[in-house]
Design brief:
Elements: E1 8-10, E2 13-15, E3 19-21, H1 36-47, E4 52-59, E5 71-72, H2 79-91, E6 95-101, E7 130-131, E8 145-146, H3 149-169, E9 173-178, H4 183-188, H5 203-206, H6 208-220, E10 226-232, H7 243-255, E11 260-264, H8 282-291, E12 295-299, H9 305-313, E13 319-322, H10 324-328, H11 332-340, H12 351-354
Parallel strand pairs: 3-4, 3-13, 4-5, 4-6, 6-9, 7-8, 9-10, 10-11, 11-12, 12-13
Antiparallel strand pairs: 1-2
Helix pairs in contact: 1-2, 2-3, 3-6, 7-8
Bound molecules: flavin mononucleotide.
Length: 355
């Protein structure tokens, strides 16, 4: 079995190890643009030894941002700043990945440091909130407008255009965000989707939008580059989206050219009791990997080198994604290599830290 520091290849993309920086919103953009913060934050994690560094969720439409300060890729003008970041991530030995997203009914909220609640124009928010159905996320949120078929096609196209721009910026891994209760998840889950047309009701109908997005995006990414999808493997709610549907979905996505399923969970409705504990989502990555026969990533409360190594060695996932641990320590992979006794992994400039 491979271990945490064994290189990994998907298509023609080679990762120096199995450690990934999970996508994390920085709430630091103006009009979707990157700035010095994104550069320093992301490139330092490449210097820190990650195999793959994901940007935060980049909105494919301005109204698809979670907060007014989200990253975006709805215009060609967003490419240049991202390209500089990609080039430096590359230079320091990591692969650069981008996550493409649309928040749907969870859009136009204040950034967490400002309370995270829905905001209107007076606080840089916006009115056009769309979803699979006219069901608000909670009583504190506005009721979204139900997307028409034309509206759905426009969103699919927005994902495709953003994927083209991602390739232009140099990203070799593109991840579609279909988790955490955002727009694509709002179509997947019966808890948010009560449509009666071909995008609602049966499993085949609820996964239709995601499969159309995947088909469109795969067509504009070179064959040598990799397409991933992040899902919430379960809503943790009875009669919601669940692991069985996730396995069936993953099987379908594999046939459409998706290489890896990034296995998260939750987010479709508030107030759900999620059994948080170290590695609480690993069981989903393990099952999807074995039952849909597709590469998977494990994420969620993975913090120690031994735990991460064991996930890979046991075959529960092909790689791990770390979120908050990478906020605490951008150099976590160096520490992990040293702790686990793997070969030197850090830049020569940092040799004396470990001698
Ligand atoms: C500040 C912050 C921002 C996040 N933003 C995103 C995001 O843009 N896209 C996403 O899929 N998940 C996002 N997440 C979730 C993380 O990617 C990760 O799945 C989650 O934090 C669990 O992993 P951890 O326990 O290692 O932090 C975010 C998490 C944090 C803490």
């Amino acid at each position: 079995m491979p271990h945490l520091f064994e290189p990994f290849q998907i298509r023609e993309v080679i990762f120096r190890n199995r450690i990934t920086v999970s996508p994390m919103c920085q709430y630091s953009s103006t009009d979707g643009y990157t700035n010095e913060w994104h550069f320093i934050h992301l490139v330092s994690r490449a210097v820190g030894g990650a195999g793959l560094v994901f940007t935060e969720a980049a909105a494919v439409e301005a109204r698809g941002r979670i907060s007014p300060q989200d990253l975006g890729l709805w215009s060609d003008k967003h490419i240049e700043g991202l390209a500089k970041i990609v080039s430096s991530i590359d230079k320091y030995g990591a692969v650069a990945g981008i996550q493409l997203a649309h928040a749907g009914r969870k859009a136009s909220t204040a950034k967490p440091s400002r309370g995270g609640k829905p905001v209107d124009e007076s606080q840089e928010g916006w009115q056009s909130i769309v979803s699979s159905s006219a069901i608000p996320f909670s009583s504190e949120y506005p009721t979204p407008e139900t997307l028409t078929i034309t509206g759905i096609q426009e969103i699919t196209d927005a994902f495709v255009q953003a994927a083209k721009r991602s390739v232009e910026a140099g990203f070799k891994v593109i991840e579609i965000h279909a988790a955490h209760g955002y727009l694509l998840h709002q179509f997947l889950s019966p808890l948010a989707n009560n449509r009666e047309d071909e995008y609602g009701g049966s499993f085949a109908n609820r996964i239709r939008l995601l499969t159309e997005v995947v088909r469109g995006v795969r067509e504009v990414i070179p064959q040598k580059y990799s397409l991933w999808v992040r899902i919430s493997a379960t809503d943790w709610v009875e009669n919601g989206w669940d692991i069985e549907q996730s396995i069936a979905l993953s099987d379908k996505l594999k046939s459409l050219g998706v290489d890896l399923i990034d296995c998260s969970s939750g987010g479709i409705i508030p107030g759900v009791n999620i059994p948080l504990r170290p590695g609480y989502q690993i069981e989903f990555s393990d099952r999807i990997r074995h039952e849909a026969n597709i590469y998977t990533g494990a994420v969620g409360l993975i913090t120690s080198p031994e735990q991460a190594d064991e996930i890979i060695r046991s075959g529960a996932a092909d790689l791990v994604l770390l979120g908050r641990e990478f906020l605490r320590n951008p150099y976590w992979p160096h520490l992990a290599a040293k702790t686990l006794g793997y070969d030197k992994h850090w830049p020569v400039q940092y040799d004396r830290a470990w001698s």
